[in-house]
């Protein structure tokens, strides 16, 4: 696979931000680790605001955007540091409410939920009944593991039972794994990916689908000529998504890929290692930066 390795290694966004009108920022692995904000992230957001560069958030969070905004506040990230905040759960929520898309229109009312209680916001105002067994369900919503430290294998029997009934599955978080407070845990995408391997019907919402960026840009209200920079740390979602949407990306190497690049947050990896990883994954980046920092 031929992949361009013609990217620039930078020490912070201040080196290149003059080329852009706005920033689309990933959250988990870039701004915070699911528990606390990274040391440089709030200062970087403050610097972007001071420079007059608008920021939108686009996160593969399988919950309502309002929940994500609240969680940011809990971490000490002020609401005036960013504009639109789009959680991919909000994209799925909007589709569920409208039921105008043919896939959503076919879903029944009875849904079985796989995921933590913190994602219950997906059902606010929805005409659905949450059931507890595959036998009672018309479809499945997976927002993550029921327990943060579950392995995908915990759900094997459930997935086989669901496939036997050909139940459709909605997954509003394509991420396969994330680092939460220093621990690597699975995400909804790992469970949904296994269901797809079994032949199950999965509807994905979120990055890397270009539709996630379309939804974000509609809220951002930037003109068609605006020059946008994505900041993200996942090659399979952030980088692939920006590639699909035709947007430049600053790839935070100190996020989910820090271990395989052998470069802790705040340090840049050996260029040959990064080149090899890009070749293997077939991704294109515009910039490599060790951390989300100014």
Model description:
The chain has 294 residues and is of the alpha/beta class. It has two domains: 8-60 and 207-289, 3-Layer(aba) Sandwich (Rossmann fold); 99-204, HAD superfamily/HAD-like (Rossmann fold). It contains ten helices and 14 strands. It has helices at residues 41-50, 65-74, 88-98, 102-105, 156-164, 188-197, 210-220, 235-245, 258-261, 271-281; strands at residues 8-10, 22-25, 55-59, 85-87, 110-114, 129-131, 139-142, 169-171, 177-180, 183-186, 202-204, 228-232, 248-252, 287-289. It comes from Thalassospira alkalitolerans. This is Sugar phosphatase. GO terms for molecular function: phosphatase activity.
Which structural category fits the helices and strands?
alpha/beta
- Uncertain segments of ≥5 residues (pLDDT<50)? none
Mean pLDDT: 94
Please tell me what the overall shape is.
Answer: globular
- Quaternary structure classification: single chain
| Estimated share of beta-strand residues | 15-25%
**Secondary-structure arrangement, i.e. CATH architecture of the largest domain:** 3-Layer(aba) Sandwich
Give, in order, the helices and strands: EEHEHEHHEEEHEEEHEHEHEHHE
Task: Report the biggest beta sheet as strand number plus sense, adding barrel if it closes.
Answer: 7 strands, parallel
The count of β-strands is 14
Strand order of the largest sheet: 1-14-13-12-2-3-4
Quickly count the domains.
2
The value of Rg in angstroms is: 19 Å
Tell me the span between the first and last alpha carbons. Answer: 33 Å
Helix content: 25-40%
Q: CATH topology of the largest domain, anyone? A: Rossmann fold
Helix run count:
10
Full CATH superfamily name of the largest domain: HAD superfamily/HAD-like
CATH class of the largest domain: Alpha Beta
């Amino acid at each position: 696979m031929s992949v361009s390795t013609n990217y620039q290694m930078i020490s912070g966004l201040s080196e290149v931000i003059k080329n852009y009108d706005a920033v689309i920022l990933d959250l988990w692995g870039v701004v915070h680790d699911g528990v606390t904000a990274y040391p440089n992230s709030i200062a970087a957001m403050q610097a972007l605001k001071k420079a007059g560069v608008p920021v939108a958030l686009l996160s593969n969070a399988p919950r309502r955007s309002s929940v994500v905004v609240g969680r940011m506040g809990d971490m000490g990230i002020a609401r005036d540091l960013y504009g639109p905040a789009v959680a991919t759960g909000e994209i799925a929520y909007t589709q569920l409410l409208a039921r105008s898309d043919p896939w959503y229109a076919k879903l029944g009312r009875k849904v079985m939920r796989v995921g933590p209680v913190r994602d219950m916001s997906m059902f606010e105002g929805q005409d659905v009944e949450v059931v507890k067994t595959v036998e009672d369900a018309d479809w499945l919503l997976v927002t993550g593991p029921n327990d943060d430290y579950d392995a995908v294998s915990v759900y094997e029997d459930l997935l086989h039972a669901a496939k036997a009934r050909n139940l459709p599955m909605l997954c509003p978080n394509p991420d396969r794994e994330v680092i939460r407070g220093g621990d690597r845990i699975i995400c909804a995408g790992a469970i949904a990916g296994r269901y797809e391997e079994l032949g199950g019907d999965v509807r994905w919402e979120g990055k890397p689908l270009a539709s996630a960026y379309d939804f974000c840009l509609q809220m951002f209200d930037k003109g068609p000529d605006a020059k946008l920079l994505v900041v993200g740390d996942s090659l399979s979602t952030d980088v692939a998504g920006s590639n699909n949407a035709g947007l430049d990306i600053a790839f935070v190497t100190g996020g989910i890929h820090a271990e395989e690049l052998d470069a802790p947050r705040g340090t840049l990896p050996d260029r040959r290692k990064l080149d090899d990883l890009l070749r293997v994954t077939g991704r294109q980046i515009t910039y490599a930066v060790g951390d989300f920092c100014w």
